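User: Modeling request: complex.
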Amino acid sequence: MESQTPVGRKITLNDIAAGCGVSRATVSLVLRGSPLVNKATRARVEEELRRQGYVYNRAAANLRRRTSSSIALVLNELANPFFAEFAAGVDETLGEAGFVTLLGSTGESSTRQQAVLGSLIEHGPGGIILSPAEGSSTEEVLAAIGAHTPVVLFNREPGGPLPGHVRWDRLMLDNQRGARLATEHLIRQGHRRIAMFGGHDHASSCRERHAGYLEAMQAAGIEVQPHWRVESKPTRLDAAHAAAGLFALGDAPTAVVCYNDAVAFGLMLALNQRGLQPGRDVAITGFDDVAEAAMSTPTLTTLSTAPRARGRQAAELILARLREPQSESRAVIAPVELVVRESSCPPIQP
Amino acid sequence: MESQTPVGRKITLNDIAAGCGVSRATVSLVLRGSPLVNKATRARVEEELRRQGYVYNRAAANLRRRTSSSIALVLNELANPFFAEFAAGVDETLGEAGFVTLLGSTGESSTRQQAVLGSLIEHGPGGIILSPAEGSSTEEVLAAIGAHTPVVLFNREPGGPLPGHVRWDRLMLDNQRGARLATEHLIRQGHRRIAMFGGHDHASSCRERHAGYLEAMQAAGIEVQPHWRVESKPTRLDAAHAAAGLFALGDAPTAVVCYNDAVAFGLMLALNQRGLQPGRDVAITGFDDVAEAAMSTPTLTTLSTAPRARGRQAAELILARLREPQSESRAVIAPVELVVRESSCPPIQP
DNA sequence: GGTTACCTTTGGATCGTTCCAATCACCCAG
DNA sequence: CTGGGTGATTGGAACGATCCAAAGGTAACC
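Assistant: Request completed. Predicted assembly structure:
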């Protein structure tokens, strides 16, 4: 049990009722805008509410009504601009629907995720929007929150199977299609030697993107060389180091589909150091469309995921689930959009 | 009164009590780790808690104890990486102290801020960490939340005076010193025609930064031209539009102190479009040191504010206030640190 | 006048927890 | 056998709202 803190004396329904000579029940009806109360009474009560500076105690109401007016939002990394935008979208939509957002950040640790979920669930959220920490499992999450609270999974699948009676909804990005679009675009630009760079294939999102890349290459009848697939951590720095692998052998790619924007920026850095100019000597695409993508030199062709819209969408999903607790669980694959900028140039003619 | 949503049947203390033949009160004592209960009983109860999958209802406990276990965090713009980091820091520290974060984002609108505060206060947070929306006033805020809930103001002062009996704490950045450091740095680089760009002077943080700029200029005996001060919204996009104003007249600046990093990036964009190379033709400094600043082209000289540490600090302040509700109100000015990167080049010799 | 109907209002129980004073079981000293 | 002390447990009243069945008041109608 954790620390808690006393709050100052608060005005309650009883104070208002006493203050204007009606019963508690009547005041409650006024508060909820019931048509039952007489106009004159309503006016009197409302005046008294204002006069005493009454604030509604939603916790007490929720207790009695067995309802909830909050949704928990648990993110693996809030500081990432992608998730910050997402959170803003979630909060916006939840706020409009009269819900409040309970925030939890797990810092990509499944241990911390357990603690955070355990703490949040005690506050009785009506549902949870969860972008699982890397390496966390369905089983763990279920143990922390029980099978009764609705969940919308975002961005990632936690490991392990979901028991049949539990209905979680999902909102995922269309990774495969995104990577396919990028690859197709490069092919249309005239490239044939196209590499796929960055990310680790043990992550589901990376596997999906790789699949999209392969799909486009095969559809175009291009034979994919094994050394055109180079993995790296999904960070700028590690990508810059790993980039050498792309040019180690002959038959070097003229275009590179990158796992995400960070990796793409790392590659740009590495190219510059080798005296190659990204967006002229080598074409590049990213994934995410972070703010920086519009400002780098060259500006980066990438896939826009519209994180704020995704946030709104996740909120809509959980709200829909609350309205229809028994409906079939939904899996939404959010579209991504190719944003063509300078970095995806045609190949240089020899 | 807004929509709410029913929650599934929950296990309560009564279920546990009935399940192992003790009273509700005893189970409650077990939950709170009281030394009063017999060892054997405790074991039996704990087993039953596990067996039935009990989850603590903190709202009910808070109601009875008249305590709160949540803190509201209200930000003017969550999507800004600076505030996202800040929020992560806040949530981290609050979580460790056993509090949960209620999130609210106002999108820089004081109307929305009123609505958000009104909704959050109904959930009875123990305190509020508030980065006020532009143009909001102390009076408004006070009307929304009353005088009883502790407040930590971050980053900005809302307009208007604070009644004497209300104790709000403040955590501000050393804006003036930061802008002075940046300006002095540019002067040392050899610049004389230095502009101050972006932000609105009706915002306190902006006025302070402007003051720091003026201080450095005056100390160096440089006469400041009126057209070296150009305002804009503190966003990348608006700054890019407003940038033209800097070069409208002759005597154009060779260096620009920007209100924040977003504005600096907007300026870079605008410069590139005019065929000027930021970091070579024009020196630039920012403010905030967002992650992007280390990765832009050129990398951005800016003032590091360590937003995550600030978040932790804000959380500490509110926690301290909860422990000592009557203590004198505190005002902390957080130091900022100049981070020199590529963008603050010396002037080009004609 | 009595019955019915409608519009308002209300007391008391309730949500899941904590607090408090009271009780109970047990042992030991006198 | 009584009295007191200790340790463990408990019933019932809160907390601030909502729900529900019931009741009071007025008006209309036969």
